[in-house]
Amino acid sequence: MNNKNSTENPDIITAAILVIGDEILSGRTKDANINYIACHLTEIGIRLTEVRVIGDDGDTIIASLNQLRADYDYVFTTGGIGPTHDDITAPSVAKAFSVPLVIDERALDMMKVRYRDDQLTEARRRMARIPEGAELIENQISFAPGFMIENVIVMAGVPAIMHVMLDAVTPKLRVGKKMYSVTIVYEHPESTIAKDLETLQKQFPEVSMGSYPYFKDGTLGTQLVLRSTNKTQLNSAKSALVIRLNNT
Amino acid sequence: MNNKNSTENPDIITAAILVIGDEILSGRTKDANINYIACHLTEIGIRLTEVRVIGDDGDTIIASLNQLRADYDYVFTTGGIGPTHDDITAPSVAKAFSVPLVIDERALDMMKVRYRDDQLTEARRRMARIPEGAELIENQISFAPGFMIENVIVMAGVPAIMHVMLDAVTPKLRVGKKMYSVTIVYEHPESTIAKDLETLQKQFPEVSMGSYPYFKDGTLGTQLVLRSTNKTQLNSAKSALVIRLNNT
Questions:
Q1: CA neighbor of B216 nearest in space, from B182, B186, B181
Q2: What residues in A contact B208, CB-CB < 8 Å?
Q3: Residue-by-residue pLDDT tens, chain B, 248 positions
Q4: CA dist A103 to A128, A155, B87, Å?
Q5: From CA A129, how far away is CA A120, in angstroms rounded?
Q6: Which residues on adjacent β-strands are paired with residue B149?
Q7: Calpha distance A71→A69 (Å, rounded)
Q8: Which of residues 146-205 of A touch B (CB under 8 A)?
Q9: Of B19, B39, B127, the CB nearest to A27
Q10: Cβ <8 Å between A209 and B41
Q11: The CATH number fitting domain A14-172, selected from 1.10.3720.10, 3.30.450.20, 3.40.50.410, 3.40.980.10
Q12: Closest CA of chain A from B135, distance in Å
């Protein structure tokens, strides 16, 4: 199995995403966060290794979170931190860590930028309930914060709000070696390059070679993607591949 | 925990999706299959309960598959059944079921519609390797089939090909009671309706009520979604909610 966290190799910092929301599973809402977080993590040098999408169910959230936070360096959750009865992420995270869920005065202060005291209704105060000991993550859009507790980062599901939370938490994250990649578009079915690619993969073990078919205008083509933390090896592998493609 | 499969309630048939592909985790490719499958399953009366995205790693595929196929009525996989060295879904599924992976004559026959014998290269013949005992799933686009083994449905990752495979396998699936839903757009933050919604949720336990904030043109609004397998209850809950919204 791939090594899952940095205890085995400090150059590799891993992460999982836990998307919480019945609306994604029913198909009503198309997730827009997984790809955004994936690109961001690749960019900063964190390796996204697993994604799970689960429903708004407390026991499921707790079980998934406890498994993922043990397996990976970081877990990013999205969804379920709003003011309504189906927003159960914060209490579930508190239970997963066995800490109390408390109305956090710092969170209330952040929300007071937007709301007068008499506007801080019971529903809105729910959004200031934070597991004890968590650091807050600022939200310049709707002001109710996300939070980070140990290696778990809890963010909103609304993409615009998630984006500012991800930016806010990024300076606090440990990162590993950056993964570089090059993509070569090859306008033929992948079966015609499969054998060459396998040979090259053996020749460049530090470079991971992927082949992704696409289907466009009735024709099958292939995107060849080479990835490595070693730029020199990556460039050598790319040159070798281009020579083979030209001779195919 | 939510009941996970039909052994507890024959009206509820559950499913998980296992997306296999490094390219989704690196962010290079935006998944287009989860939402498509989610909508299709909701439409036919199967409840999607979990989604996992994992990399092209054999042990990870085997472990995830064995957990999901034990937990849910069906598991749909996408990705990793092409002709290249990184396509390891079929051998991993065979290992998960402890059955041999064999060159399947029926699969070769399907591929011969497209390829002459001399075009059936070693790479292309890889796509005819099927776990022993599996049923084939036709693919009218590129002719290499998917397959179904027990409750696991193995499909291509290329969306156009996945779509025809999903259509081909659908008549073979058991389905449960269909889930109906109505969506009401409420142009105010969800905190202003949170309390009413909680009260209504208690009044209509058969109807699941979700509240999904959106952020558009600088304003927070809410989509209120009611879901139930009981149409009468769903309509009553909708009427009660509309009355409350008009009085808010």
A1: B186
A2: 22
A3: 445 777 778 889 999 999 999 999 999 999 999 999 999 999 999 999 999 999 999 999 999 999 999 999 999 999 999 998 889 999 999 999 999 999 999 999 999 998 999 999 988 999 999 999 999 999 999 899 999 999 999 999 999 999 999 999 999 999 999 999 999 999 998 889 999 999 999 999 999 999 998 888 888 899 999 999 999 999 999 999 999 998 87
A4: 5, 17, 50
A5: 13
A6: B152
A7: 6
A8: 157-161, 179, 181, 183, 189-195, 197-198, 201
A9: B39
A10: no
A11: 3.40.980.10
A12: 23
| Cβ(B132)–Cβ(B94) below 8 Å | yes
The reply to whether residue B59 touches residue A1, judged by beta carbons under 8 angstroms, is: yes
Q: What CA–CA distance (Å, rounded) separates B192 from B222? A: 10
Query: Which residue ranges does chain B devote to CATH 3.30.70.1130?
Result: 180-246
Residue pair B82/B158 in contact (Cβ under 8 Å)? The answer is no
How many beta-carbon pairs under 8 angstroms link A with B? 209
Contact A34 B38 (CB under 8 A): no
ipTM given for this complex: 0.92
Taking CB atoms and an 8 Å cutoff, what residues of chain A touch B121? 191-192, 195
Would you call A193 and B84 a contact, using CB atoms and an 8 Å cutoff?
yes
- Tell me the nearest-neighbour CA distance from A121 into chain B, angstroms: 8
User: Residue B77 pairs with which residues in a beta bridge?
Assistant: B18, B154
Q: Which residues contact B228 (CB under 8 A, 6 or more apart)?
A: B179, B180, B181, B204, B206, B207, B208, B234, B237
Cβ distance of B195 and A123 shorter than 8 Å: yes
B21, B87, B154, B104: which is closest to A190 by C-alpha? B87
CATH T-level topology, domain A180-246: Alpha-Beta Plaits (3.30.70)
Report CB contact under 8 Å: B63, A1.
Answer: yes
Alpha helix (H) residue ranges in A135-218 = 159-169, 194-203
Cβ–Cβ gap B197/A126 under 8 Å: no
CATH 3.40.980.10-classified regions of chain A: 14-172
B48 in contact with A, Cβ within 8 Å = yes
A171: CB partners within 8 A, 6+ apart: none
